[in-house]
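ping. complex inputs:
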Amino acid sequence: DTGVSQDPRHKITKRGQNVTFRCDPISEHNRLYWYRQTLGQGPEFLTYFQNEAQLEKSRLLSDRFSAERPKGSFSTLEIQRTEQGDSAMYLCASSSLDRDTGELFFGEGSRLTVL
Amino acid sequence: GQNIDQPTEMTATEGAIVQINCTYQTSGFNGLFWYQQHAGEAPTFLSYNVLDGLEEKGRFSSFLSRSKGYSYLLLKELQMKDSASYLCAVRADTDKLIFGTGTRLQVFP
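pong. complex structure:
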C-alpha cells in the first residue's frame, strides 16, 4: 500500500452544485479523518471515523456537509449546495490504534474551487 | 476552548539553527505532534512528544513541557529543502488532532 489516496485532486464547481470527495486510507488503518485547510492556515478538523462509526463531527460543520465510511474502508465527503466559502483543500488522513504514537498519515488532498 | 499558538513566519540562513515555538491551551492532553508541510503538498509527520523532555531525531528535535503548555521544534544544520510550513498539533481529550496555524519557515542561502 502506497499511502492515503484522494480523488479527485482538483474540483471546480459552480455555487449551488453538490460535490463528493473520496478517500482511500492505508489498508490496515482503522481511523479515518477529514480536515479542511485554507491558504496560510493549519488543517481544521471536520470529522473522524473508527471503522464505520462516525465518532465525532465538528460543531462548526454545516448541515450541508456529510461524510460516510460504509464498510470501514474508503470514505466519502459530500458537500451539498456549495458556497464560495467552501473553497479549500480537503485533506483525508488515516491512523492505526495499534501504533504507539497514533500519528496521522495524510493524503495529497482534494482542492475545491467554488465559482 | 482549544488554542494553539505559533509564530506565523520565520526566516533563517542555510546551515544555521532555528527554534519554532508552540504554546497550547486545550481540554486534556494526549500528545503533541509536529508536522512539516511543503507548499501544495500533504503534511508529513516529524515528531511526537507525550512526556516532558527532548526527543531527538537526526537534525530535528522536539521538546515538551506539559506544565507550561509549551513545545518547540529545533532544526539544526538548516538546508534549503527545510523551507516549509511547520505545524504544531495537540491530541486533546478526543482522538482528533487540533492544529495551529503553522509557521512558515524560509531558509536563505
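The first strand of chain A starts at residue 5 and ends at 7.
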